[in-house]
Amino acid sequence: MRQAPLSPQMTVALPVLGAASILLAWQYLLPLLGVPAYIVPTPTAIFGVFQRNFALLMDNLRPTLIEALAGFVIGNLAAVLLAVLFVHSRVLQAAYFPIVLFFNTIPILALSPIIILIFGLGMTPKIVIAAVICFFPTLVNMIRGLDSASDNEHELFRVLSATRSEIFWSLRLPRALPMLFSSLRIASATAVIGAIVGEWIGSDKGLGALIIQATFNYQSDRLYAAIVLSSSLSIALFCIVVLIERRVIRY
Amino acid sequence: MPDAIEARQLDVGYGGRQTAVKVLTGLDLTVAAGSFLSILGPSGCGKSTLLRVVADLLDPLGGTISVLGETPHTVRSRRDVGFVFQDSTLLPWRTVRDNVRLPLGVGQRSLTRKIEDRSTELLELMGLGGLGERLPHQLSGGQRQRVAIARALLGEPKLLLMDEPFGALDEITRDRLNDELLALWRRTSTTILFVTHSIAEAAYLGERVIVLAANPGRVVKDLDMRPFKQEGNRCKREDPAIVAAMADLRAALERAS
Ligand SMILES: Nc1ncnc2c1ncn2[C@@H]1O[C@H](COP(=O)(O)OP(=O)(O)OP(=O)(O)O)[C@@H](O)[C@H]1O
Ligand SMILES: [Mg+2]
């Protein structure tokens, strides 16, 4: 039997209670079990870092935010433009899509050192890595989305003698938007991952660098604070994407 | 005035010219301008295919076809043809009104005449007044089909092709839409080709009913309904003459299947 749906209050209250119970157990149960603070610091210790080292955290958040955001925009934009090109030229798609497919099979961790070799140690290589990591899922989704209009829909536009560009703007693009947004939601998390991976490999700034430094210095409260901050960054990006999606897609 | 459709020895199929699977072979069909033609036939016999050729969505493999005295291509690029699909094919991201307005938004460049935004009038006419700002998913199946018809009418087509437009509707709604369609047809000089699986609907609507058979697709019955109807293609569904004609059509359809 299907369970009755939860009331609106409960759908908000239950996740909050769930999270609170985990935090409480973490705070009080883990020390009791003898887990040392240098492996898992308590939530209050992590929160303490936000108070004491707020400036440090913000200084490291800024480059990661910029890299992730720039990578997100550039990677997705490039993917959308290439998808548009591909659906309008089957020849180009047949010629180059397999190569794109091949590039996608290279693990980002293997690709990153090369990107850093090419672009040096500034923000650029991190932006490129974040862009690369966003690029492929959006490309695939966008191609599928732009091709997802039904035969009947295409015939409807043909009966109306619509031009190619009218078909694109009035049919293909709106049809593709739901799939585009679902890959943008994924990209909101992967862009941050890309920026952090880039910072691991070659940087002394950013959340990725902070994570590496804190690990080597056994500053685990700082390490956990950096992790909390990077996931907050992903969540914030995700929320922005969802907000835009809700305004754009109303059906 | 040229005939709405004149097809001679028409061959139609899918796939390339060499490898094609023929769906219609040697089809001869003449449809007078301004008339209402119902098309019956077993599933897969090529009814939709025939409409596709008329609408220039598919090129014939052989034979000749002229639509309104010209090639299907000319007629389509002038936008003299309207098409109502079996599923309403409304764009889900557009409001009802904007769906009806689609013919204003696209393909205007190839239009030689000027069409007006009659969306308010057409929505009213199709009993959709007040629903203009809704999205298609907020409508019933019958309402969606009315929107599709309003959209086709906004383009002021000289030839209206309808492919099982009411197939998915309950009988009461279907009957009501039948009457609305007939009223529309009487007021305009539009030629209508109406594909249906319902013998009753075909007989009630058509001034003439043809039955297609499959493999190869051809006309196996061509019944003039005007002798059984009053002026203006009016009749009662239960009129004995109509019922007799329906039995006649049913027999032809059974032989064709
Ligand atoms: N795009 C296509 N490619 C290849 N074959 C097709 C295509 N569309 C239809 N056919 C074939 O052509 C034949 C006629 O199809 P069509 O859609 O015209 O039938 P129909 O009379 O409209 O049937 P229904 O009543 O089920 O809608 C069928 O055998 C079908 O399999
Ligand atoms: Mg069909």
From TrEMBL, chain A:
ABC transmembrane type-1 domain mapped to chain residues: 61-245
GO BP terms: namely: transmembrane transport
Please name the PROSITE patterns in this protein's record.
ABC_TM1 (PS50928)
Cellular component, GO, one term? plasma membrane
User: Do you know which CDD domains this protein is assigned to?
Assistant: TM_PBP2
Q: Where do transmembrane segments lie in this chain?
A: 65-87, 99-121, 127-146, 180-203, 223-244
Quote the subcellular location field of this record: Cell membrane
InterPro entries linked to this entry: MetI-like (IPR000515), MetI-like_sf (IPR035906)
UniProt keyword list: Cell membrane, Membrane, Transmembrane, Transmembrane helix, Transport
Entry membrane topology: Multi-pass membrane protein
Q: Which family does it belong to?
A: Belongs to the binding-protein-dependent transport system permease family.
The identity of this protein, by name, is ABC transporter permease
Q: Which organism is it from?
A: Mesorhizobium atlanticum
TrEMBL record, chain B:
* PROSITE patterns per the UniProt record, alphabetical: ABC_TRANSPORTER_1 (PS00211), ABC_TRANSPORTER_2 (PS50893)
A GO term, aspect molecular function: ATP hydrolysis activity
Limits of the ABC transporter domain:
7-239
Q: Which Gene3D superfamilies match?
A: P-loop containing nucleotide triphosphate hydrolases
Q: Which UniProt keywords apply?
A: ATP-binding, Nucleotide-binding, Transport
Family under the similarity heading = Belongs to the ABC transporter superfamily.
Q: What is this protein called?
A: ABC transporter ATP-binding protein
Native source species? Mesorhizobium atlanticum
